[in-house]
Specification:
single chain, mainly alpha, two-stranded antiparallel sheet, 36 helices, 63% helix
């Protein structure tokens, strides 16, 4: 039994889920002889006392009892308690130092655990001694002794990771620790230990990496995989064997290579070469791990990724469904950058019509990954399969977005899209959701024959139901794209007192070019409380050009005092109305630094400004030289990070060319 538990007033303490009255039961259960009881107690403590890394008063009260438990060698499963203590003592999200101080106060308990008979305890203690002992010389000596004495490879891996942690915690003692890492990274140590050492060196002392780090890592990976292949697999007749056959995994190998990739960071060429070795491994599990590491590189770093994409395409012929599906998932995120894998995608689409759609449980069908990736790459070979789906009774709702990405190549499907749009009930609550992809397709292919269907969608919804308001913005933009604004004037005027007034005004301007009819509405929209409406109004005022001079005072205020997402459209409008760079460039410079997601629209306006934008040339040039991608737009879909960043890079190249007077060549 753990003594002293009942002396704590647990009812007065709190954890993540309320009162801490259940904590004494968990603490006692950790000392139980029943494995399930211990596991349940540990799960409960993680979820309540260490929820999202937070520190509670009950967390602090538990630490002495947890330290007492791990010191009792006769208790089983102490490694889980050590890991819980490491988690509790790590930095909390809110910067509360109390938990760390509490664990450090009892840190001597971890010293004997480093040589405990249980290898799982030794493995957990390796990091604990670095985290909580405050005498670096003693810690390093302990790690050195354990590295010499240890025979369990999993414990040696933990000790290697602990050395990397030591260097980060005690940089003044880094040289001796990195010497140990360099020793671990060389023969005669096992391949996985050498890979672990290389990964830690890459993180903490990249200058100590060997010059041939990539070929060395690839060779070690293959040696490790060959050794793992010689270990007998569980029988396929057992549950474990069947699961392993269906979903083979190698978490250790994944972690080793992921650490090395993280350490290599901006060394994109080295990481690309490393991925080349991983993606051509004879072991499909290595290749599957590599696919997800390729995803991280493609999402996070710029460069010539065509070779990596081709290797991703080569995985589409794999017999292992998990490997193929992983490659498809990554290619789907790349948009046009998936083009080097288009042949393999097309072959998969032709061979597997069953993959054209995907249906989640109790959900509507969506476009399947291979077909979505092929269309996203811009390859017109996606059209026949999309045509078959469009003609079927249950076409995926998102199919129109794939057609939009194909643009003019999807023109033969325009009649079918038009027909499907015409079947949407305008008053339906789902009208906007169903219409959005179809409207995107109609606009992209320029189907002027679809104007009646678009107008029906706008005018057919009864007032007061919200259906018209939900679909109006994109429908009006589609009409304007098709050059059909004049036919829609009555409907557009009906929208002038809705939140889509600015979009409707833009279409009316396209139809009649009458500033006196649209300027008062835009000035009113510019004074709205809704930031989205102000931004749309600023964009439309810029389209009016000099005819919108009456809006200059309000736009100048907006460009100076509003958040970046409003300053940028206001500054763009100022340039298009007045062609004076003086109030525009400071707004762009500030927004470029404060709100990176505004850089693409800024770059487009800089292109229009031409040489007048030259004072910001350094910002554009620096963006083009930066190795890392910008993250996806806040609130947007993470899968759009790569296409969004590629759009930014194209806009920057065009802006740079325009500033230098050769816009026509870009």
């Amino acid at each position: 039994m753990v003594t002293g538990i009942d002396e704590v007033d647990w009812a007065s303490l709190r954890h993540a889920h309320g009162t801490a009255e259940d904590v004494p039961g968990w603490l006692r259960a950790l000392a139980s002889a029943d494995t399930a009881e211990r596991a349940t107690a540990l799960d409960g403590m993680y979820g309540a006392l260490h929820h999202q890394g937070r520190v509670y008063d009950s967390t602090l009260a538990c630490v002495p009892f947890l330290l007492s438990l791990v010191a009792r060698e006769e208790l089983p499963d102490r490694s889980g308690v050590v890991e819980l203590l490491v988690g509790i003592g790590a930095e909390s999200p809110d910067g509360d130092p109390r938990a760390r101080e509490a664990v450090c106060a009892g840190s001597q308990v971890f010293v004997p655990l480093a040589e405990d008979p249980d290898p799982a305890v030794r493995r957990a203690a390796a990091g604990a001694v670095v985290h909580f002992l405050t005498a670096p010389t003693r810690v390093l000596d302990l790690l050195r002794q354990r590295l010499r004495a240890e025979r369990d490879n999993r414990v040696l891996l933990a000790l290697t990771e602990a050395l990397g942690l030591f260097v980060r915690r005690y940089p003044a003692h880094a040289d001796a620790a990195t010497d140990l890492l360099a020793e671990q990274g060389a023969p005669p140590y096992a391949p996985e230990l050498r890979l672990a050492a290389l990964g830690q060196l890459a993180l903490v002392a990249p200058g100590r990496l060997p010059a041939d780090v990539v070929p060395t890592a690839v060779r070690l990976l293959r040696e490790r995989s060959a050794q793992r292949a010689r270990i007998p697999e569980p029988s396929a007749d057992t549950l474990v064997g069947r699961l392993r056959r269906l979903r083979p995994s190698d978490e250790e190998g994944s972690r080793l290579l992921r650490t090395l990739h993280t350490g290599l960071g901006d060394r994109v060429d080295d990481r690309t070469a490393l991925l080349g070795g991983q993606l051509t491994s004879p072991d499909p599990v290595d290749r599957c791990n590599a696919v997800w590491m390729a995803a991280a590189l493609l999402r996070g770093w710029r460069g010539d990724h065509s070779g990596t994409v081709r290797l991703l395409g080569a995985q589409l012929t794999a017999e292992q469904d998990r490997l193929r599906d992983a490659a498809v998932a990554v290619l789907t995120e790349l948009g046009p950058l998936a083009a080097p894998a288009a042949d393999e995608l097309h072959a998969l689409v032709c061979a597997r019509p069953d993959l054209w759609t995907h249906r989640f449980e109790r959900g509507s069908p969506t476009l399947g990954g291979p077909l979505k990736a092929l269309a996203g790459s811009g390859d017109p070979r996606a059209v026949p399969a999309l045509a078959q789906l469009l003609a079927g009774p249950a076409a995926p709702a998102d199919l129109g977005f794939a057609l939009a990405r194909l643009g003019a190549a999807a023109a033969p499907l325009a009649p079918a899209v038009r027909h499907r749009l015409g079947r949407i009930p305008p008053a339906s609550p789902s009208a906007a959701r169903l219409a959005a992809p179809l409207l995107a397709a109609i606009g992209a292919v320029g189907d002027e024959d679809a104007v009646p269907e678009v107008l029906r969608l706008l005018s057919g919804a009864p007032d007061g139901l919200g259906a018209r308001d939900a679909v109006a913005g994109q429908a009006v933009e589609t009409l304007e794209t098709l050059g059909a604004s004049a036919q829609a004037v009555p409907v557009l005027r009906a929208l002038l007192h809705t939140r889509h007034a600015a979009v409707a005004v833009g279409a009316l301007w396209s139809a009649h070019q009458d500033a006196s009819a649209v300027l008062p509405v835009l000035l009113r929209e510019l004074a709205q409380a809704d930031p989205e409406r102000r931004c749309r109004a600023a964009g439309q005022l810029g389209r009016l050009g000099p005819a919108a001079r009456a809006a200059l005072p309000a736009l100048r205020r907006m460009a100076c005092s509003r958040p970046a997402q409003e300053r940028v459209p206001a500054a763009c409008a100022l340039w298009r109305i007045d062609t004076d760079p003086e109030p525009v460039l400071p707004a762009f410079r500030a927004a470029w630094a404060d709100a990176p997601h505004t850089r693409a629209p800024i770059a487009r306006c800089l292109t229009a400004m031409g040489p007048a934008a030259a004072p910001l040339r350094h910002l554009v040039a620096a963006e083009l030289a930066a190795p890392r991608r910008l993250p996806a737009h806040p609130g947007g879909h993470g899968g759009q990070a790569v296409p969004e960043d590629e759009t930014l890079l194209r806009a920057c190249r065009e802006a740079l060319g325009a500033m230098e007077g050769d816009h026509g060549r870009h």
